[in-house]
Design goal:
single chain; 145 residues; alpha+beta; OB fold (Dihydrolipoamide Acetyltransferase, E2P); two-stranded antiparallel sheet; 17% helix; globular; signal; DUF3299 domain-containing protein
């Protein structure tokens, strides 16, 4: 299975013009958090500080592999997680840097916890407490399991 995954990722990367293959370690190391002051309108929201390496990827195409999660009953809010639902960061296994919001052009047909390789445009969020710190827009995904 791992060999097949490596082949798929290699083919995706070699066919890519300027895509960057991201790992969850890259995302974890590429962010730090700063608590807001009590005067801040979003007190309690920790502002993200991104490393130069991650900041340079803003607006660029990336590839990331993780578990597909659906977050609402209408099946319209999606994210990619480092861990499957039973052990995602909501359950205390990691922090908000272990999930990435996904924005697809068309409604995806993947099931919860499907292992996916996702390609799309990376967006970073420092200021909006209603969004993910990391987001992939124009997402295109391939099931790996």
């Amino acid at each position: 299975m791992r060999f097949c995954l490596l082949i798929v990722l290699f083919l995706m990367a070699t066919n890519a013009k300027t895509q960057t293959l991201l790992s969850w370690s890259d995302l974890s190391k590429g962010i730090s958090f700063q608590a807001q002051s009590t005067e801040d309108p979003f007190f309690g929201f920790t502002k993200a500080q991104f490393s130069q390496k991650i900041a340079e990827l803003e607006g660029k195409e990336v590839i990331l592999t993780g578990y597909f999660l659906v977050l609402d009953g209408n099946q319209s809010i999606y994210m990619l997680s480092k861990n499957p639902m039973a052990s995602c960061f909501f359950c205390g296994n990691g922090g908000p840097e272990t999930v990435v919001g996904l924005e697809f052009s068309d409604k995806p047909l993947f099931k919860m916890d499907a292992l996916l390789s996702v390609k799309g445009v990376l967006r970073l969020n420092q200021n909006d407490p209603n969004q993910y710190y990391y987001r992939i827009e124009k997402a295109d995904a391939m099931r790996l399991d």
